[in-house]
């Protein structure tokens, strides 16, 4: 009986099975063929654990690196990130979580770079910011919120740099300032 603390003890019947039966040869050949073809190769699936025995990563590998769905956990066993890799690069929808299980961040990757709408939330579940990426650059309209739900800041990015009019508000909802940017450089600021 397996106690989980070492090698499995075989019963007398299992230990005395003949090793050269036709069935045993068939099973060995089948397993070898599967490994050669990669169908059940231990190298294809990667798992890793924390020292406490909790799983920390699970996914598949190909000759090009990480491939297919991947999941990551913290040492407490809570899911922290989940998404897909293709040829070693993050692709498609990815989701990240806070330690308390609330969604932290979500967005898409293309060939390892953020692409399209990305959103981030506080541990409370309230939206912190949202905006778009093209490659590694922030583009288009971005908005950030205070923890009370009031808009904190909003404006445009162009080629990863602040551009045009950015407006900021106090936590009570009153306008704080308007700042004009050109190519990421502040050119005018008005305080209210």
Key features of this structure:
2 helices; 13-stranded antiparallel β-sheet; 10% helix; mainly beta
Indicate the overall shape: flat
N-to-C span:
77 Å
Low-confidence stretches: 1-43
Which strand order spans the largest sheet, edge to edge or round the barrel?
1-2-3-4-5-6-7-8-9-10-11-12-13
Give an account of the 3D structure.
By secondary structure, the chain is mainly beta. Among the domains are: 44-114, Single Sheet (Histone H3 K4-specific methyltransferase SET7/9 N-terminal domain), CATH 2.20.110; 136-192, no CATH class. It is 10% helix and 55% strand. It has helices at residues 12-15, 22-37; strands at residues 45-49, 55-62, 65-73, 79-86, 89-97, 103-110, 113-121, 127-134, 137-145, 151-158, 161-169, 175-182, 185-191. β4 (79-86) and β5 (89-97) form a beta hairpin. The longest helix has 16 residues, at 22-37. The protein is flat. The termini are far apart. Mean pLDDT is 80; it is low at 1-43.
Summarize the SSE layout with pairings:
Elements: H1 12-15, H2 22-37, E1 45-49, E2 55-62, E3 65-73, E4 79-86, E5 89-97, E6 103-110, E7 113-121, E8 127-134, E9 137-145, E10 151-158, E11 161-169, E12 175-182, E13 185-191
Condensed summary:
The protein is mainly beta and 192 residues long. It is 10% helix and 55% strand. It has helices at residues 12-15, 22-37; strands at 45-49, 55-62, 65-73, 79-86, 89-97, 103-110, 113-121, 127-134, 137-145, 151-158, 161-169, 175-182, 185-191.
